[in-house]
Amino acid sequence: MTYDLSHLPVSVRPQAFGSAEDRIRQVHTAHWVGYPRADLFLEHFERLFRHPARTRMPCALLYGDSGIGKTMILEKFARAHRPVYDDKLGQEVRPVLLAQMPSGPDERRLYASLLAEIGAPFHTAERIATLETLTHVVLQRLRVRLVVIDEVHNLLAGSQREQRRALNVLKTLANVLQAVVVAVGTGDALLAIQTDAQVARRFEPLELPRWRESEAFRAFVASLLKVMPLRKPSPITDRDGSRKRLRKTDGITAQVCAIIAQSAELAIVNGSESIDLGLLQHVSDRQHLQPH
């Protein structure tokens, strides 16, 4: 049987001729699917990245529901600024550093998280002042210009004293490195940042909200379908299909991606090669029945 694959980009069409196993693996592989809101954030972070170095650098807090796509946006940004080897310096330069706020948010563990991320040798028993100095020296040597601290909402798991000290680490990083710090987390991250008025003034709050029924959401789903190696087009990008997906996923990006991927897998297995509203409903109902 021959198929008209004009619904797929040229780069994806060869994958549509692969085995069922290969195609199922492909639909569950994480894909970057651009959309206008994400592009706006990427452009904003690029402006921050290019900001001239000064003692009081602009910083940002990107917050939103878990699974909404915050980390993927910043991982996409980091891929555009990969580490490079500088022949003149004779060492690696790492423009963007991705790290994570520890579940127990104290200074020692935060410095350890930063040092571990760059593979710097250190001893956890060192004094905090030593870890702080080591962190600053190594990050300056690597010419880090933007530091991302994910899971900042973990701050709320600590005492008020631990929260203040961890927040002071973020502020000091920005000052000493003359680098941008981007904090990332859920809505609780906004509460955590606001516990320190000085830090709150430094971090511009940027919300990534849930999807609503809109042309932008339908365009996002259409782009997502284009990376699914199905041999037939999927007629689910109209308003009716859009509303159904939003009801079942609560507008959370990760859930939207999951339901599309699972539907694509079933379309490959059952030979339909297309996702229609009935299949989408079936997968949605199956997800709803699964134990949490």
Molecular structure report:
With 292 residues, the chain is an alpha/beta fold. The chain has two domains: 13-29 and 227-289; 36-207, 3-Layer(aba) Sandwich (Rossmann fold), CATH 3.40.50. Helix content is 48%, strand content 11%. The chain contains twelve helices and seven strands. The protein has helices at residues 20-27, 36-49, 70-79, 107-117, 128-141, 160-177, 187-193, 197-202, 215-225, 239-249, 253-269, 277-289, and strands spanning 59-63, 84-86, 91-93, 96-100, 146-150, 180-185, 203-207. The strands form two sheets. Strands 4-5-6-1-7 form a five-stranded parallel beta sheet, with helices on both faces. Strands 2-3 form a two-stranded antiparallel sheet. Strand 5, helix 6 (160-177) and strand 6 (180-185) form a beta-alpha-beta unit. The radius of gyration is 22 Å and the shape is elongated. The relative contact order is 0.15.
